[in-house]
């Protein structure tokens, strides 16, 4: 599995797509921070109004950037396509599987690669917020330790929940062998959950609205201590998606 | 290494109502170049996909390099394969694709990549992206990816597809070299039977999902002796005439065909003899042995048996 992850990173280093994704992430982060603009997909105006204060601090920038991470999800779809989508569209996974890598190692390796990529990109995203805010001469708004803690917490939370959505995308990709369907699913997931929640008022939907958790923390409507049901649900989804994908690959004509 | 590299025991595979493989059993021994022969859809690729685990084995047992299918630990690491089409990352160069393969296999010897490129004749294309390679060059890249980890066993599904005549000759030499110099055991399928004949040491004939014949190259050569092939109206009557006249060694192929392997009599004399005894001879040809002919005879015999049994 480690060899496969190493091979994936070798491939990424030689693919311009990863650099485009990094530049897009940094440009997006710089723009929203420099212009003090808040916005994302499926973000309500009440949430956005919390950031309509006269002058942003670095901390406001970090929290505001979290509201825009739905856009980050869409930028990161390129990672999904590069890391695992291309394997299926070009059927290159055959080379890996014939080399003796087990299905579970293959899926876990791909998931780990995506998670590391997303962590790195999200870390850079918030890092750019800090940098641009600092260059704009904004006040910290909190102690350095608090800023670093917020940076780390937001990075982990956003990257983790994006990777959970991608894990569901993986099982769809493996089942249907269609990158298009898997990508469309990843794109539609936040919309579907939000629409369903609006109509049904099912409370449990909040546990699978993976894009909403980091935003709720940023807005202070969800305390870190109350995160566990969300994390538990997500870990359950991850296990089902990873093991399920491996089992489907074992049984499927590849 | 034990003598048996691959043992396939009673393997069947069904896709819906279609029986792709029907109780196939065969053994490939160390050092063999095993030529798998059969028409499109006969089950060759399905069998290779089952061996490499790309298809799920439900019926029968496959033992590869001493390990049972479904529980391979090291067997696939010692196996190289091109199944259906060779695949590579299109935007990576030839060398980058091989480097990727080397990382996956934990190969650290840097000279191996250059050596493998030289072996398959792709050194001049090492900096070319895989998507810019011709079909023949892609086949070579596929072979390079398959042999880079120095496998003990190599599975090649129609490897000469898309190659020009000189490419086919070079590919044949590569296969022989791998077998003779690196002692690689090879399972190969091809629809170019003359090619398969030239490289293989053993043959397995698959027809409609069943292994209908297995034989060595020596046995094939014996069965394929040049002779006089006759098409007659009644093969029983014709054989009686030939037997009584002691024309020499002959074999009955089916109800209307027989081959006289050795005879002191000329073709004209045999023809006259049969006609005099009331046997109608519709065709009489001097036949040189070939794998194609053997295959066609085998398949037509098999189909007749199938028709009769129904």
Give a brief outline of the structure.
The complex is a heterodimer of chains A (254) and B (310). Chain A has 254 residues and is mostly helical.
Q: What descriptors fit this protein?
A:
heterodimer; A: 254 residues; mainly alpha; 11 helices; B: 310 residues; alpha/beta; Rossmann fold; Alpha-Beta Plaits; 2 domains; 4-stranded antiparallel beta sheet; 10 helices; elongated
Structure description:
The complex is a heterodimer of chains A (254) and B (310). Chain A has helices spanning 2-13, 16-34, 45-49, 58-67, 69-89, 93-98, 103-135, 144-176, 179-200, 212-219, 228-251. With 254 residues, chain A is mainly α. Chain A has one domain. In chain A, α5 runs antiparallel to α7 (103-135). The mean pLDDT of chain A is 87. With 310 residues, chain B is α/β, with parallel strands linked by helices. In chain B, a hairpin with a 2-residue loop joins β4 and β5. The model of chain B has no long low-confidence stretch (mean pLDDT 88). The interface between A and B is medium-sized, with 25 and 31 residues.
């Amino acid at each position: 599995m480690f060899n496969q992850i190493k091979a994936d990173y070798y491939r990424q280093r030689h693919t311009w797509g990863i650099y485009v994704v990094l530049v897009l992430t940094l440009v997006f982060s710089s723009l929203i921070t420099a212009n003090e603009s808040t916005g994302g997909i499926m973000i309500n105006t009440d949430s956005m109004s919390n950031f309509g204060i006269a002058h942003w601090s670095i901390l406001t920038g970090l929290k505001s950037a979290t509201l825009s991470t739905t856009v980050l999800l869409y930028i990161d779809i390129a990672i999904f396509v590069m890391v695992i989508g291309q394997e299926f569209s070009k059927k290159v996974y055959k080379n890996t599987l014939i080399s003796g890598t087990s299905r579970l190692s293959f899926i876990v390796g791909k998931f780990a690669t995506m998670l590391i990529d997303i962590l790195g990109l999200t870390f850079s995203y918030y890092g750019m917020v800090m940098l641009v805010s600092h260059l704009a001469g904004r006040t910290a708004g909190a102690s350095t330790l608090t800023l670093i803690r917020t940076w780390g917490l937001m990075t982990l939370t956003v990257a983790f929940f994006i990777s959970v959505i991608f894990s569901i995308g993986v099982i769809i990709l493996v089942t249907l062998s269609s990158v298009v369907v898997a990508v469309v699913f990843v794109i539609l997931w936040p919309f579907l959950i939000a629409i369903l929640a609006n109509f049904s008022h099912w409370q449990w939907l909040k546990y699978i609205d993976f894009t909403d958790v980091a935003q709720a923390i940023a807005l202070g409507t969800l305390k870190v201590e109350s995160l566990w049901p969300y994390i538990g649900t997500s870990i359950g989804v991850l296990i089902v998606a990873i093991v399920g994908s491996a089992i489907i690959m074992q049984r499927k004509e590849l | 290494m034990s003598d048996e590299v691959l043992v396939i025991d009673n393997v069947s595979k069904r896709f819906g109502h279609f029986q792709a493989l029907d109780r196939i059993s065969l053994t490939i021994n160390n050092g063999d170049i095993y030529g798998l022969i059969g028409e499109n859809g006969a089950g060759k690729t399905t069998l290779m996909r089952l061996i490499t685990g790309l298809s799920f084995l439900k019926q029968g047992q496959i033992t590869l390099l001493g390990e049972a299918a479904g529980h391979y630990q090291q067997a696939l690491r010692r196996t190289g394969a091109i199944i259906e089409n060779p695949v590579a990352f299109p935007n990576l160069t030839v060398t980058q694709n091989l480097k990727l393969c080397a990382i996956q296999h934990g190969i650290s010897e840097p000279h191996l990549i250059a050596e493998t490129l030289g072996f398959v004749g792709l050194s001049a294309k090492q900096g070319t992206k895989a998507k810019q390679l011709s079909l023949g060059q892609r086949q070579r890249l596929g072979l390079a990816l398959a042999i880079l980890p120095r496998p003990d066993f190599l599975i090649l599904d129609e490897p000469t597809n898309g190659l020009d005549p000189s490419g086919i000759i070079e590919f044949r030499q590569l296969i022989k070299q791998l077998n003779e110099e690196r002692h690689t055991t090879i399972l190969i399928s091809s629809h170019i039977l003359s090619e398969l004949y030239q490289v293989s040491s053993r043959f397995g004939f698959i027809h409609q999902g069943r292994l209908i014949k297995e034989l060595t190259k020596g046995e094939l050569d014996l069965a394929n002796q040049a002779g006089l092939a006759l098409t007659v109206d009644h093969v029983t009557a014709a054989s009686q005439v030939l037997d009584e006249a002691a024309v020499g060694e002959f074999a009955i192929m089916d109800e209307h065909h027989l081959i006289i392997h050795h005879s002191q009599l000329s073709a004209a004399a045999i023809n006259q003899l049969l006609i005099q005894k009331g046997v109608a001879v519709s065709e009489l040809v001097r036949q040189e042995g070939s794998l194609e002919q053997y295959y066609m005879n085998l398949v037509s015999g098999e189909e007749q048996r199938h028709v009769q049994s129904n």
